[in-house]
Design a protein that fits this description.
The structure holds 2 protein chains of 2 kinds. Chain A is mainly α. The relative contact order of chain A is 0.13. By secondary structure, chain B is mainly alpha-helical. Chain B is built from 2 helices and no strands. The chains are: A mainly alpha, B mainly alpha. At the A-B interface, helix 1, helix 2, helix 4 and helix 5 of A face helix 1 and helix 2 of B.
Amino acid sequence: MDLEHSSISKPMIMAFHFLGALSHIQKTTTHSTFVCRCHRIRCAAYTSMALSTGGHSAWSRALLRGKLRRGGLRKRAVILQRPRKRAVRLEEGCQDGADVLRRLVPGSAGMDSAELLDETADYIRCLEEQVSLMRSIVNVVSSL
Amino acid sequence: MSSRRNRVSEEEINELISKLQSLLPETRRRGAGRASAAKLLKETCSYIRSLNREVDDLSDRLSALMATLDSNSAEAEIIRSLLPS
């Protein structure tokens, strides 16, 4: 099934994964500490973000790799190779900013500026969707 | 020849800069016109950090809400067990 032509939108996939994870967390953390549950919810948030993109971006693969490292899954997803453009260098004063960005966006360490900005754009959009999803859930649950 | 290469680079840089600008929400797009790439990068990093903090904060709230939900269901369970079946 090709995700591009699927009628299921990315936010819906994200919601599906995140709500499923929350339901599982609620069942399994009745006697856990607040901090433990908090940490699991946070992990679930980033995982559902990564899953919603279908592995098309490097940051999502990096997040999932980090998650799966424990399970020992070595299978690599099919990576869509983008045509390599000539590396573009930003002006001199930007290197520090670009390095900080590379630390913030997972999996972007070895990228040139053009790829880095593409990844950043995708990452920011997904983060915004995740935040919006979590806000809606908090609103619904707190009004119960 | 080098000038031609510089021109192409500059177009690409401008494209990247406008892309950076479009990432930030309206409230963070400071100043009219084209801000420097360095400033935009800094602003972008700060925006990502604030989004990460929001996810943390919302996780905290969800965790607290789930705790109250748990206690509610426990009470519901007790009530249910007290009622004659």
